[in-house]
Design brief:
GH92 mannosidase fold, nine-stranded antiparallel β-sheet, 723 residues, Glutathione S-transferase Yfyf (Class Pi), Chain A, domain 2, alpha+beta
């Protein structure tokens, strides 16, 4: 089997259906940065970009084909023009960016507006990898330019190639709108300082007076001319500008062909940005050395898993998914300090941000426990710090509180980590935080809805007052009432598991009782969970859901599946209803509430049905092409589902301490675990037999289709056989 490089030259061949295949040198070469970067719907596709950074990098750097914003990422593969290159912190397509700026090399004439500076793109001239990006293009006058860059966690290294016969210009945009930004050009130091104060999601969270994205730009050669601009007004040889839509430019001597720019970023101040730059890309380090360093960082992570028996497409899909799970949560601290968007102050310590908790508690965070164990405790610590600084755990920090989505799934993430043995953080404070979610209603507990504008109050569990009083969230009091009730009950179960292990018995019993509150919304006449009004009457059968409908939430009782099976009529009926869910088109893999559905068959002893469904889901929803993800990757959740399912097991119930079994996607998988341990997964009869129903752990037959997470963490051999 020939392996190939996942750089654009390779991708172009594959998508065209022809061309010679190149041999991959390491697993990083399989990564196709364009998977998920476009789709038929404006927002409901992968939402990924070919952004460059180190694993979990604080600032990413990406080619911009459009002006990004909420529900609009900077890059879409189907776009035809390039607008520049952006330092971005946008974590998902339906979230906004913050603290960003744009730069773009130009020739001869300075063009400010996007439509005027846009240049036509040719994907054949584009190379994108996790550690390096390059694109060649002609400007509107036909001048040939080339831009390439690499990036560490907090810094980037750009190299621009200009035609020697024309004036070389670098365009800089510090602010676009709202809070805007500022630029200061320091000709004596040959340095530029850019500050951006914008937050696209600012209307969803508190005002942050001290928030800013700071950048320090240092150049390989001196610039001769410079200036600033404000809206459309250009001020030659002016060194400072501040406002909503502002920026600047610099010019280099005629004959300049190559300009290198090292850029440090910070959320603290310019001084820290310079410190970050000196630590990560000092002046003594070359572009190629930096590129090599970042590549090595990705190789060391992606090489943790080796697969055998993969097709070229499968290998590309697998390692691209693995790469996507190492984007978020992103690093937010800067060498022992961090800016907190929860109290608007600087603190000492380690921090992370961009937790898509409504999605990622399901598989992304459990996947990090398996593959990034050294980071998990710090990620939990970061959540606890947010609680200390803001008063609540966040639901979707970007970078501060946002009233986005429902449930308080930081509860599930923290409890699951604790149950699985991650405890190097303030455990009692962690429990205090998740307990508050479960027992304290928000200050203004009224009719909350997704993306509710900030009113001085954080939503937390919006509708909790009625949930505590009635045993369900009332449809006439709070929107999305069915989804909220079911997700609150699941979170209660998770908090209960941590309470029990910490000896909080009273809390445990209260919470476990509440974890069955889904029963209060089950309508035996319809066989579905249904919204109810505060007076107990039923609401419309289609009312009260988010990110799905009654079929989606029919099976969303992950915390007590035996009870759900009984509720729906026993194992036979339950399996038939699950079959209907899949066969009648109710299942939506492009959204996360149903990601566990295929593994529910395990709870009826039907491993064969799991093994029938999983390959079909993979084939339908994961492809090696730009529109190869059926739904938003959502900070790694779509990718993590694929990875777990490729290994042959999945975290069905958070904080349960076990995985549900499926079927591996490859004949052999070797996973490097913490402390030098290894997990070997074998399926030698894969593709020869319809089902591999006998599963052995270290040579011992597993009697049920479940395996302890702690056993997996210890390493060993998991073998799937037909007999």
């Amino acid at each position: 089997m020939k392996f190939q490089l996942a750089i654009w030259g390779f991708v172009c061949c594959v998508l065209a259906g022809g061309g010679n295949l190149l041999k991959a040198q390491s697993n990083v070469d399989y990564v196709n940065m364009f998977i998920g970067s476009t789709g038929s719907h404006n927002t409901e596709y992968g939402g990924t970009t070919p952004a460059v950074s180190e694993p979990f990098g604080m600032t990413q750097w990406c080619a911009a084909t459009r002006i990004n914003g909420i529900s609009r990422t900077a890059y879409n593969y189907n776009d035809t023009h390039l607008l520049g290159f952006v330092a971005t912190h946008q974590p998902a397509i339906w979230m906004g960016d913050y603290g960003f700026f744009t730069l773009m090399p130009q020739v001869g004439i300075l063009n400010l507006e996007p439509e005027k500076r846009a240049v036509k793109m040719d994907h054949a001239q584009e190379i994108a990898t996790p550690y390096y990006y390059k694109i060649g293009y002609n400007d509107v006058q036909g001048h040939a330019l080339k831009t390439e860059f690499t990036a560490t966690s907090r810094c980037s290294f750009f190299r621009f190639n200009y035609p020697s016969t024309e004036k070389a210009i670098l365009f800089l945009e510090a602010g676009r709108e709202k809070e805007g930004g500022s630029i200061e050009i320091l000709p004596d130091k040959q340095e530029i300082r850019i500050c951006n104060k914008e937050r696209h999601d600012s209307h969803l969270g508190p005002r942050l007076y001290n928030f800013k994205g700071c950048y320090v730009l240092k150049f390989s050669r001196p610039f001769s001319q410079y200036g600033t601009w404000n809206e459309v007004k250009v001020s030659e040889m002016q060194s400072k500008e501040e406002g909503a839509h502002v920026g600047g430019y610099i010019e280099f001597e005629l004959g300049t062909e190559v300009v290198e720019v090292r850029i440090g970023s910070s959320f603290i101040d310019f001084e820290q940005a310079s410190v970050n730059l000196e630590k990560e890309i000092p002046a003594s380090v070359s572009f190629e050395q930096t590129k090599k360093k970042v590549k090595a960082a990705w190789e060391s992570n992606l090489d943790k898993i080796r697969i055998k028996g993969a097709t070229d497409d499968d290998a590309t899909i697998f390692y691209t998914a693995f790469f996507r799970t190492m984007q978020y949560p992103r690093e937010f601290s800067e060498y022992g300090r961090y800016y907190s968007p929860f109290d608007d102050k600087i603190h000492k310590g380690i921090s992370y941000n961009a937790y898509s908790l409504w999605d990622t508690f399901r598989a992304q965070h459990p996947w990090l426990q398996l593959t990034q164990s050294q980071r998990v405790d710090d990620m939990i610590t970061a959540l606890i710090q947010m609680y200390n600084e803001g008063g609540w755990l966040p639901k979707w920090p970007n970078p501060s509180y946002t009233n986005i989505m429902i449930g308080t799934h930081a509860d599930a993430v923290i409890a699951d980590a604790y149950v699985n043995g991650f405890r190097n953080y303030d455990v009692e404070k962690a429990y205090e935080a998740i307990r508050k979610d479960a027992f304290q209603a928000p200050r203004d507990d009224y009719r909350w809805g997704d993306r509710h504008y900030w009113n001085g109050s954080y939503e937390a569990r919006g509708g909790l007052k009625e949930y505590l009083d009635l045993g369900y969230v009332a449809a006439d009091k709070t929107t999305e009432s069915v989804s909220r009730t079911l997700e609150f009950a699941m979170d209660d179960y998770c908090v209960a598991q941590m309470a029990k292990k910490l000896g909080h018995e009273e809390d445990y019993h209260i919470l476990m009782k509440r974890s069955r509150n889904y029963l209060n919304l089950y309508n035996p006449q319809t066989g579905f969970f249904q919204a109810r009004h505060s007076n107990g009457s039923w609401a419309d059968i289609e009312e009260g859901f988010t990110e799905g409908g009654r079929w989606t939430y029919r099976f969303c009782v992950m915390q007590n599946i035996p009870d759900l099976i009984h509720l729906l009529g026993g194992e036979d009926v339950f399996c038939k209803e699950l079959d209907k869910n899949f066969d009648e088109g109710h299942y939506r893999h492009d959204n996360e509430p149903g990601h566990h559905f295929a593994y529910l068959y395990d709870c009826c002893g039907k491993l064969d049905k799991v093994q029938n469904r999983i390959p079909m889901i993979i084939k339908q929803h994961y492809k090696n092409k730009p529109d190869g993800l059926s739904g938003n990757d959502d900070c790694g959740q779509m990718s993590a589902w694929y990875l777990f399912s490729s290994l042959g097991f999945y975290p069905l119930t958070p904080a349960s301490g076990e995985y549900a079994l499926g079927i591996p996607h490859f004949k052999e998988i070797i996973l490097q675990l913490r402390d030098g341990k290894k997990l070997l997964i074998k399926a030698p009869e894969l593709n020869k037999k319809d089902y591999l129903l006998r599963v052995y752990w270290n040579g011992k037959l597993l009697e049920k289709p479940f395996i302890s997470i702690q056993d997996i963490f210890k390493g060993g051999v998991l073998e799937f056989c037909s007999e």
